[in-house]
Amino acid sequence: MNQGSKCDIISTMTIRKEENRNKDVGQVLQKYRLRLTDIPKSRQAFIDDRSRKFFDNTEWISEKTLGNYETGKNIPTLLNLKKLSMALEVDIEELLTEIVRLL
C-alpha cells in the first residue's frame, strides 16, 4: 500500500468517526426532546411550544436546524446549546457533560 492510500484510509476513518460522534450528540438532543411528555413529538410542535413558553414567541431555531442537529449533520454552537437546554428543560451543565463524554 502506498503512502497516499494510507492517508486516504486514515482520512476516511477520521471523517466516519466524527460523523458517528455528531450522530451521538444528535441522539442526546432527540432523547431529551422526546422525553417531554406535555407536547406533541414533532420537531415543529416542540419549536412552537418552546417559542411560546421560553422565547416570547420569537424564532429561536428552525425545524431544519433542529433536524440537522438531531441527525448529526450539524453540531450546535454553545449559544444554541444554551437555548436548547432551556427549551429541553435540562440543566446546561448536565447537557454539556453528556455531550462532552461523547467527544
UniProtKB/TrEMBL annotation:
Domain HTH cro/C1-type, chain residue ranges per copy: 61-95
Pfam families found in the cross-reference section: HTH_3 (PF01381)
Stretches assigned to coiled coil: none
Name of the molecule in the record: HTH cro/C1-type domain-containing protein
Source species taxonomy: Bacteria, Bacillati, Bacillota, Bacilli, Lactobacillales
